[in-house]
Design goal:
With 402 residues, this protein is α/β, with parallel strands linked by helices. The protein has 15 helices and 15 strands.
């Protein structure tokens, strides 16, 4: 590895900026956390910092979405897991945050509020400009060491990720270190055919990565579900009405172009489940009419996809097949994960939602690598350089030449 790790630093008595990713699945009706895997991972890193003053920072959700909430519930869950007091302040860069950080004693843990409450954290910057943001300028002087352990958001050039390593010593946390090592080992033994199962709702991110996966020999078959599956069905003309998603014309046009360039790579659902009066109704895609809400893939699609998965050399699955958080609409996600877990291939499961689902269904012991990272892991497998890793490498180089 070209990055420094926690083993390269004396942590005792230091005030540590620890950027993690506790962006968890949230119940859209209650606002409760329904998958705690990412918080469990944070606990692992914190065990190595028992003699430090640790300030945890994370984002949660996207502005305007139902999962955009504060971090108070995360503090409660983390405290229970650690069996240690976790302080929480409803602030990020203001006076309350400053004063609480300054008053920390060795062994204290403080969690700041949702980073995305700060406008700057909702934009991407070059590392140089990220270091000039108000967030970095106000907080950096309070810390001795920056620890980046947010591999699920390693593909983002946000100030909290690429800004702080520009102005202080920085290293990878335990989760980021393990992810990089394990993935490098897995990819050296991965073999064709490479089957990629993509779902979820982050369509622009997925489209960006799909071309790279194909071009770099990491995707011989791409099986689509979720919102991105709907986008490709719209591009094929199999869904004949607007989906009502952001940037729809643009993403459908890009999907159409990909289908034209790689016609033998993509598979889309043949049947789906729609939501009618809070119940599940399965139907052929050709019978869909405008206004019906697609919430899952159907059994014929699962059967077809499972056959492809069973003959794979490597399987990578990222993103749920539908609204798996809602009772009755998790069938596609569950059955596709079951097909992956039974496969003889090298298997990688990616993303916070799927790791939560794996644990729920008791299938996690049958997967070669489980990562809470979603988009970051997809891009990493394409061979792309992730901003967080680049920032850590640059910080390591500066320490070597200092």
């Amino acid at each position: 590895m070209k990055v420094r790790t926690l083993d390269d630093f004396d942590l005792a008595g230091k005030t540590i900026y620890l950027r993690v990713d506790m962006n968890c699945p949230i119940d859209p009706l209650t606002g409760d956390i329904i998958g705690t895997k990412r918080i469990e991972e944070v606990a692992e890193t914190l065990h190595t910092m028992k003699d430090s003053k640790v300030v945890l920072v994370s984002h949660q959700g996207r502005v305007g979405n139902s999962d955009y909430i504060g971090m108070n519930k995360h503090a409660v869950v983390l405290e229970r897991m650690l069996n240690r007091k976790v302080k929480y302040v409803q602030d990020v860069i203001g006076v309350a945050a400053h004063n609480t950080i300054k008053d920390l004693e060795d062994g204290d843990i403080l969690l700041l509020d949702n980073l995305r409450l700060c406008a700057e954290e909702n934009y991407e910057f070059t590392p140089h400009n990220a270091a000039k943001t108000i967030m970095v300028q106000r907080l950096a002087k309070l810390f001795d060491l920056c620890v980046l352990d947010s591999f699920p958001s390693a593909h983002r050039s946000h100030p909290s990720i690429v800004g702080f390593p520009q102005v202080m010593p920085a290293c990878a946390g335990r989760i980021a270190e393990r992810e990089i090592r394990n993935l490098n080992e897995i990819m050296t033994v991965a073999k064709a055919p490479h089957v990629v199962v993509l779902g979820g709702a982050k369509v622009p991110d997925r489209l960006e990565a799909i071309r790279l996966l194909i071009q770099n020999g990491r995707a011989d078959h791409i099986l689509l579900t979720g919102v991105i599956g709907n986008v490709f069905m719209r591009a094929q003309g199999r869904i004949r009405y607007p989906l009502g998603i952001k940037f729809e014309d643009d993403v459908v046009r890009k999907a159409h172009r990909l289908i034209g360039e790689y016609p033998d790579v993509f598979s889309t659902p043949v049947d789906v489940a729609v939501r009618e009066n809070d119940t599940r109704l399965e139907m052929d895609v050709r019978k869909l009419v405008e206004g019906e809400q697609i919430v899952d893939v159907g059994p014929k699609t699962v059967e077809h996809y499972s056959k492809i998965i069973s003959s794979a050399g490597t399987v990578f699955i990222s993103g749920p097949a539908g609204n798996f958080e809602m009772e009755g609409f998790d069938v596609g996600t569950r059955d596709l994960l079951r097909a992956v877990s039974k496969s003889m291939a090298t298997t990688i499961v990616s993303g916070g939602h799927l790791t939560a689902a794996l644990k729920k269904y008791g299938m996690d012991a049958h997967i070669n690598h489980i990562s809470t990272a979603g988009g970051a892991l997809v891009l990493y497998l394409t061979g792309a350089k992730l901003p967080m890793i680049q920032a850590l490498e640059s910080a390591s180089e500066r320490l070597s030449t200092a």
